[in-house]
Specification:
The chain is flat and about 75 Å long. The model has no long low-confidence stretch (mean pLDDT about 90). It is mostly helical and about 250 residues long. The longest helix has about 40 residues. α3 packs across α6, α5 packs across α6 and α8 runs antiparallel to α10. The protein is built from ten helices and no strands.
Length: about 250
């Protein structure tokens, strides 16, 4: 077992222990408080906030991946190449429009809570997935696609059995990047009453309680590192399997 894996497992164990029993770690954060401030966030369950935070990120990333991959497939087909500039412009909207501005525009239409946060994260997550999928599908070796065409595969068969499997590593890298970005960005959802870990950070800022701010930041940071590493491991596994399968089919 590598040292890196041991460290990651230790971080995961500490994170779970803190979320399940945060009071056990009060001695760590106590030096950061003053004037008898509460040491551990006491306005809600850290575990519930973390699970809700992850759920919002998962839904937003899944929606962004579905739309972005679909658009990339569309514009790489002969009948859809003319839509490439429009699709790229749509994907760029989320990155050029600040999430805070998206929230401000979405709240009057969707109300306070989770919905406007999902919209902001969805828009913010489109570009990395779209561009990576586009790169993956357009950067395939011509010899592979020509071999598939020579075997009599239809356009759909080439897409499903050759193009997507070979482009999968690049697509997954985009999804991984989008997920990590959304994990951090989701904290601003608490400004519009979404239940995320931003509640902990905002509560700390409003009360000048550094302990709260650090707790929220550490949880988000630990989640980002662990999820990034986890998705990287899944990516490597799927890459090996699908790459072997695609080459066998071709």
């Amino acid at each position: 077992m590598s040292i890196g894996l041991v460290i990651r497992l230790l971080v995961l164990a500490l994170l779970v222990a803190f979320l399940v029993s945060p009071e056990s770690f009060a001695f760590v954060f106590e030096p950061l408080t003053k004037n008898n401030q509460p040491v551990i966030y006491n306005q809600g369950s850290l575990l519930d906030l973390t699970l809700n935070h992850l759920l919002i990120v998962a839904i937003a990333t899944a929606l962004a991946a579905t739309v972005a991959v679909g658009l990339a497939i569309l514009v790489t087909r002969p009948f859809g190449t003319e839509f490439l500039p429009l699709s790229r412009s749509l994907a760029n909207v989320g990155q050029t429009f600040p999430p805070v501005a998206v929230l401000a525009l979405a709240v009057p239409m969707l109300g306070f809570g989770t919905a406007p946060t999902l919209v902001a994260l969805f828009l913010y997550g489109l570009l990395p997935i779209f561009e990576n999928t586009l790169t993956g599908l357009t950067g395939l070796p011509p010899t592979v696609t020509e071999a598939a065409r020579g075997m009599g595969m239809t356009g759909r068969q080439r897409l499903v059995r050759v193009e997507l499997p070979l482009a999968l590593p690049v697509i997954l890298a985009g999804i991984r990047l989008s997920t990590v970005i959304s994990l951090a960005t989701a904290t601003i959802g608490s400004t519009v009453a979404a239940r995320t870990l931003g509640e902990v950070i905002i509560a700390g800022l409003l009360s000048s309680n550094t302990s709260f701010v650090l707790q929220g930041g550490l949880i988000v940071g630990a989640l980002a590192v662990l999820i990034y590493d986890g998705l990287s491991a899944i990516e490597r596994t799927l890459t090996r399997r699908t790459g072997q399968g695609a080459r066998a089919n071709a």
